[in-house]
Amino acid sequence: MDDNKCGTSSTNRDNNQTIATPAEDPGRILSANDDEEIRQFQTTFSDMIDHTCSNSYENIGEFQYNSQDTFRFLFRSIIPAREILQQDFEPESEKNLFNFEAEECLKYSFKVLDRRTNRLTIEHMPVYHKYGMRLLFRGPLQRELLTTNAIRNFFARETLRLGKAFNEPKSRKHIQNFIKIYQINLNELLEPNIQRYFTFNEFFYRKLKVDARPIDNRDDPCVVVSAADCRLILFDNISEATRIWIKGHQFSLEHLFEDEVLAKEFENGSIAVFRLSPADYHRFHSPISGILGENMKTITGTYYTVNPMAIREQLDVLTRNQRTMITIENSYFEKVAFVAIGALFVGSVNFTAKPRQSIEKGDEL
């Protein structure tokens, strides 16, 4: 399960929604060795998902939960995938992948500033996520392979496959361990009884109690609120964002929107990135009051992970992933573009609000 910037239920494609397909990228030409690297990666990745889809084990996320969260004992804790992982890219994979030095371990963790305490904390992440980051980004060859069409199509296919599995009633068995891994507070849920969720996806896009997230300065049009439970990063302009944080080869507003005219409207605008982790409440809300635009546009794409390590690599994550966008207009800000971006294992976006609908700050989108 990856972090994301969107919900997880099926994409809503009503009469006011348009669908765009970005220009096809031929991708890098592969050598025979590269083909073998991709084959090994796909086999390892797919076999792990096979076990999750078949519900052979209750632990979510390739069933690699390790309560001690220590790399030293990780290999012993991977039950069905152990033999598969031993066939990873290098024969000495156990040594290379799991004997992390403390400094390198932090490289695959994310620091978050907690605004309540004003302290930096390490974002909670199960061991298998750290393993996945190391698997995908530990060398220049692995990072380059991620840009190939073969891997893009593979991520899209596996994400859709897992999404279908999590819509099956038998997937509910994963809920309890998901709560345990991510320490989810059931007291703030509108429905705290997990027996009333009939699939894993139903729990993943769970609702909160009405008063669980108070809206700050609801009547003040100058105040913009967070669009979600998230890890938030803000930039005054696009140039600053690409200089400091967003490193994709082709990141631009034109590529993000697939709309040259709209991109020009926002070329001097600020940008806010609301990143949801798997533990977060996966519904998003309007940061301002206003009127939704006439069209909801879906742009087809792949499903790269959207965690900070990927966004800060030379991957076109934000402009290659499946995404849905709509504008919000009001008299104070004129126009805001809201882009909900899918992610690895969290591929679809469902807007409950409709085009041309009047919304208040904090209303669910």
Automatic annotation (TrEMBL):
Enzyme Commission number: 4.1.1.65
BP GO annotations: phospholipid biosynthetic process
UniProtKB keywords: Decarboxylase, Lipid biosynthesis, Lipid metabolism, Lyase, Phospholipid biosynthesis, Phospholipid metabolism, Pyruvate
Annotated Polar residues bias: 1-20
Pathway the protein takes part in: Phospholipid metabolism; phosphatidylethanolamine biosynthesis; Lipid metabolism
GO molecular function: phosphatidylserine decarboxylase activity
Broad class of enzyme this protein falls into: lyase
The UniProt record lists the keyword Glycoprotein: no
Region (Disordered): 1-27
Cofactor: pyruvate
Cross-referenced InterPro entries: PS_Dcarbxylase, PSD-B
Record's function text: Catalyzes the formation of phosphatidylethanolamine (PtdEtn) from phosphatidylserine (PtdSer). Plays a central role in phospholipid metabolism and in the interorganelle trafficking of phosphatidylserine. May be involved in lipid droplet biogenesis at the endoplasmic reticulum membrane.
Protein name: phosphatidylserine decarboxylase
Organism: Rotaria magnacalcarata
Lineage: Eukaryota, Metazoa, Spiralia, Gnathifera, Rotifera
